[in-house]
Predict the 3D structure of the following.
Amino acid sequence: METVLVTGGAGFIGSNVCEALLKKGYRVICVDNFDSDLYDGKIKEGYIEKLIANQNFAVYRTDIRHKAELEDVFNKEKPELVAHLAARANVRNAVKDPYPYISINIEGTLNVLECCRDNAVKNLVIASSGSVYGNDPVVPWAEDHLTGEPVSPYGASKRSAELLAYTYHRNFDLNITCLRYFNAYGENNRPDLVPYIWGKAILDEEEIEISGDGSRERDYTYVGDVVRGTVLALEKPLGFEIINIGNSNPTSLKDLLEIFKRVSGIEVKVRSRPSNSVSMEKTFADITKAKRLLDWEPEVTLEEGVRRLLTWLRDHRLEKSV
Ligand SMILES: NC(=O)c1ccc[n+]([C@@H]2O[C@H](COP(=O)([O-])OP(=O)(O)OC[C@H]3O[C@@H](n4cnc5c(N)ncnc54)[C@H](O)[C@@H]3O)[C@@H](O)[C@H]2O)c1
């Protein structure tokens, strides 16, 4: 039985990755500091609650910025594979306070790379982001697209982590795949993201806010598809690659709202608010490379994904107040 260490394993995507890996028969080591800086750490405890009973699952409350502690976990658990998802997310917050984005997303990633090298890990997958492409209007974005003009320190930190990772492949022959995720949504959704905020407001019959005229487009990608791509990448060492994982089907906020209305059957009240200058106009992944190298493409339509998100929210919001 192979051991996979998942950093950020209690977060939105990480908890779904841990669950999928356990279902596939891996031993899974979740490393997470359960901070409450972006959203309440108790919510993350809830996301992995049902996994705790599994004897192949272990949790370490470790901060990836603390190298000695991270080394202890690697030395004890000896993972063959590593999925590095721990990061400070949220594009807008990064503009206000960039420091944690540098210390966690860059220096924390450096610690993970060092531990992977010292432990001769077979394959490392790093969560990167479509935000490395900045606000480039030329779409769709393929992996060799320019990445020199990110809009926020978050995108800059993710691109920096990719560059750092490349040097560990080049100098130490580590297998590393950086996956550029695009606008994930679904079960265990991050509470600061639009699909969660809207879904919760709709179920609570509250007014929802739409940014600007609602024309901004996002490449919303169902978390189950993101997880499948992540597991495929983990199971296939490729030397060094950067691969987009996105739906490749951008949807405007206006159209997303129509989908929420249709799926929920609830007529929502909508208020417009000024749009944020940090936001990108459109995100759009070219997924030719993911198809070619990982045989991956998205399977869940936005309509079906929103249905699953609303079902999850209905089941969890009352009992857990997430
Ligand atoms: N959600 C998206 O749409 C999206 C898009 C692009 C990239 N990503 C990337 O995917 C990864 C997962 O994102 P998510 O949406 O699940 O976010 P998340 O905030 O839910 O998950 C990140 C996890 O990392 C943990 N973490 C943060 N700092 C840590 C530290 N110093 N030490 C240990 N653990 C720490 C957090 O507690 C959290 O559980 C991140 O790397 C993020 O940048 C996400």
Notes: The chain has a mean pLDDT of 96. Residues 8, 10-14, 32-35, 38, 44, 63-65, 85-89, 104, 108, 127, 129, 181, 183-184, 190 surround nicotinamide-adenine-dinucleotide (CB under 6 Å). The domain at 3-184+222-247+284-299 is CATH 3.40.50.720 (Rossmann fold). The first helix runs from residue 12 to 23.
